[in-house]
C-alpha cells in the first residue's frame, strides 16, 4: 500500500473525472493521499476532499500564490489551524516554501510569508510541506532561524546531496516522484538511490510532474495531447524507485510508507480509522 504524500487533488484538471481518479488510485494500491492547499481560497476545498475520501490535507500559502495573498491571510491560516486542531485529517502546514526559479516573484514577499508560516508551524506543532525550487539553502536558513523542530517533507526535492543531508538533519524526509523515472534525471536518480532508506517518501504532485510514460512532446501537446499526472501512477513510480534501490516493490511501498508516517505523524491516526464510505 502506497502513500502519495503530495497530490493537488482539488486542481481543476480533475474536475471532470475526480471520482474515477480516486477509484483508479485505490485500485492501484494508493491507500492514502495528502492534499496540500495553495492559498486561503482552497482551504475549504482540500479539507472537504480529504474528509470525503478519507485522505489527509495540509493548510498553507504556496510561494507561487503569495503575490495574490494578503497579510490578513496569515491570520486566516492561524484561525483555520486552531479551528481544525483536533481534525485527524489535518496533518501539516503546506504547501509553503520559496521558489527562486520563477523570476517574476518578489523574493522578500516570499521570504516573509515563508517565515511567518514557519512561526505558525512552531506554534501549532505541525510539520511543514516545503516547495523547494532553487531555494534549498534559504529554506534551511528559515527552518534554523525560526527553530522549527517538527520536521516535514521537502517536496519534489531537487537539491544537492549536501542540502539533502541538511534537511535530514533537521528531521525532514524528501519527496520523490515522476522526475526519477527519466533516465536524464541523473542527480535525482542518484539521490533516490544513495540517500538513507529512511529519507525517502513518494509523491506524484499530480496533476503536475508527469512520469516518463506520460510525457508528451511539445508538438504532441500542441496537437491536444494531455500529460496530466494522477495519483494512480504512484505505484509505477515507486517500482522505478525500487529498481534504483535494489528493493522489491513491496519493500519500497513499506519503507516509504513508514517514512511518510514519521514525517507526518497524524497520518498514523488516520490509517486506523474505518474505511470511509464513498
Ligand atoms: Zn505542490
Automatic annotation (TrEMBL):
<dbReference type="Pfam" id="PF01026">
    <property type="entry name" value="TatD_DNase"/>
</dbReference>
<dbReference type="GO" id="GO:0046872">
    <property type="term" value="F:metal ion binding"/>
</dbReference>
<dbReference type="InterPro" id="IPR032466">
    <property type="entry name" value="Metal_Hydrolase"/>
</dbReference>
<keyword id="KW-0479">Metal-binding</keyword>
<dbReference type="InterPro" id="IPR018228">
    <property type="entry name" value="DNase_TatD-rel_CS"/>
</dbReference>
<keyword id="KW-0378">Hydrolase</keyword>
<dbReference type="GO" id="GO:0016788">
    <property type="term" value="F:hydrolase activity, acting on ester bonds"/>
</dbReference>
<dbReference type="InterPro" id="IPR001130">
    <property type="entry name" value="TatD-like"/>
</dbReference>
<protein>
    <submittedName>
        <fullName>DNAase</fullName>
    </submittedName>
</protein>
<comment type="similarity">
    <text>Belongs to the metallo-dependent hydrolases superfamily. TatD-type hydrolase family.</text>
</comment>
Amino acid at each position: 500500500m502506497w502513500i502519495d504524500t503530495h497530490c493537488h487533488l482539488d486542481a481543476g484538471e480533475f474536475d471532470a473525472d475526480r471520482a474515477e481518479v480516486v477509484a483508479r488510485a485505490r485500485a492501484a494500491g494508493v491507500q492514502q493521499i495528502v492534499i496540500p492547499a495553495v492559498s486561503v481560497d482552497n482551504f475549504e476545498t482540500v479539507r472537504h476532499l480529504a474528509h470525503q475520501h478519507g485522505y489527509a490535507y495540509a493548510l498553507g500559502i504556496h510561494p507561487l500564490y503569495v503575490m495574490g495573498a494578503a497579510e490578513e491571510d496569515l491570520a486566516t491560516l492561524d484561525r483555520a489551524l486552531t479551528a481544525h486542531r483536533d481534525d485527524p485529517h489535518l496533518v501539516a502546514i503546506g504547501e509553503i516554501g520559496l521558489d527562486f526559479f520563477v523570476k517574476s516573484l518578489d523574493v522578500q514577499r516570499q521570504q516573509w510569508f515563508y517565515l511567518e508560516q514557519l512561526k505558525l508551524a512552531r506554534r501549532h506543532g505541525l510539520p511543514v510541506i516545503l516547495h523547494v525550487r532553487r531555494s534549498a539553502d534559504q529554506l534551511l536558513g528559515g527552518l534554523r532561524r525560526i527553530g522549527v523542530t517538527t520536521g516535514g517533507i521537502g517536496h519534489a526535492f531537487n537539491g544537492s546531496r549536501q542540502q539533502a543531508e541538511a534537511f535530514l538533519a533537521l528531521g525532514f524526509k524528501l519527496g520523490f516522484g515522476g522526475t526519477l523515472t527519466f533516465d536524464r534525471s541523473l542527480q535525482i536518480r542518484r539521490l533516490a538511490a544513495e540517500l538513507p532508506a529512511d529519507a525517502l517518501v513518494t509523491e506524484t504532485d499530480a496533476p503536475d510532474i508527469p512520469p516518463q510514460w506520460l510525457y508528451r512532446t511539445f508538438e504532441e501537446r500542441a496537437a491536444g495531447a494531455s500529460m496530466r499526472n494522477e495519483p494512480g501512477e504512484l505505484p509505477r513510480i515507486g517500482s522505478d524507485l525500487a529498481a534504483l534501490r535494489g528493493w522489491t516493490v513491496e519493500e519500497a511501498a513499506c519503507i516509504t510508507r513508514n517514512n511518510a508516517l514519521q514525517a507526518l505523524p497524524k497520518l498514523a491516526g488516520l490509517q486506523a480509522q474505518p474505511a470511509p464510505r464513498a
